[in-house]
Amino acid sequence: MKILVIGSKGFIGSHVASFFKLIPDSTVFECDVMVDYEKDNYFLIDSTNSDYHTIFQNTAFDVCINCSGAASVPDSIKNPFRDFTLNTYNVVKMLDSIRTNQPGCKFINLSSAAVYGNPAEIPIHENLPLNPISPYGIHKMQAEQVCQTYSRFYDIPTCSLRIFSAYGNGLKKQLFWDLFQKAKKGHDIELFGTGQETRDFIHADDVSKAILCCQQKAEFKGEVINVANGEETTIGSAVEIFYSFFQGTKKVHFNGMVKKGDPLNWRADISKLKGMGYVQSVDLYDGLLKYYLWISQL
Predict the structure, then answer these.
(1) What's the rounded Cα separation, in Å, for the pair 198 and 165?
(2) What pLDDT is stored for residue 55 in this prediction?
(3) Closest of 181, 198, 177 to residue 189, by C-alpha
(4) What whole-number distance in Å separates Cα of residue 89 and Cα of residue 159?
(5) Would you give the DSSP letter of residue 88?
(6) How far apart are alpha carbons 215 and 201 in whole angstroms?
(7) How many Å separate Cα 11 from the centre of its chain?
């Protein structure tokens, strides 16, 4: 089994590449925009003009996992064309390279729960109408449509995984990284929102396991699959758990302001994923403890 991980230097991509290297009879190839002189089976892509044809012309892959792209709602608002290029246009380029060179390669596209925006109901199942509230969410939705197009018209085996609130070692942005940075500056912490907003957190190790389940059991007919744990946790509760690992008491104040593009409540229906054999292995407490121990060494 030859597996190509595009975006292997990123947060989720690095976890996925490491995880699949442990799978028996699997050979992992990596691809990213950063130079790496040490790794074997590594492809360097030009960040300004990515070309995947040479990769798919010279090596036959069984599976391509796309972990690449931008992953910042605020940045997508500031730089919408850049976000479109990285999250939508590049997916077209990958799939057209597959179509041209090896149409039998399975393509797993990492999408985002951002496609749902503020959902009409909880839990969020895959058939709910999409209502993205940021350029990032719109571009992820468009990438899913691209995957469906190539599956429908060219018989390319594709599926898109809607990742909810992923976290873990290596993540240097979003809520828990922000909490760490603010804790270094003092004990009084101000955060956006009310603290009652909810997320469905999933550790990067479990994201990797979910991808394996999908790689083995998905139909690859352009379908979409939620990747989460089906657990709704308030931001206030997550903050309390995380700060329990720090020395001294942190006084947290929520300012009531909602950042543009941020959803209010998320909890996924993961019936599809569970039907493929997914079982959570890292709960939020243990995952945040691992993350705290990691950042403590920085």
Answers:
(1) 10
(2) 96
(3) 181
(4) 17
(5) I
(6) 21
(7) 8
Residue 234 has pLDDT above 90, yes or no: yes
29: which 2 tokens? 């190839």
Instruction: Find out whether 62 and 2 touch, Cβ atoms under 8 Å.
Output: yes
For 211-233, what is each residue's pLDDT tens digit? 999 999 999 999 999 999 999 99
Q: What is the pLDDT of residue 50?
A: 87
135: left (phi over 0), alpha (psi -120 to 50) or beta: alpha
**What are the E-state strand segments in 70-215?**
106-112, 158-163, 165-167, 188-191, 198-199, 201-203
pTM (two decimals) = 0.97
- Domain 2-169+201-231+267-281: top CATH class: alpha beta
- Above 90 in pLDDT, residue 49? no
CB 28 within 8 A of CB 3: yes
Structural domain boundaries of the chain?
2-169+201-231+267-281
Rounded to whole angstroms, the Cα distance separating 91 from 147 reads 8
The pLDDT value recorded for residue 48 is: 79
Residue identified by tokens 């950063």 is 34
What's the DSSP call for residue 89?
I
Residue 153 CB neighbours (<10 A): 9
Is residue 9 over pLDDT 90?
Answer: yes
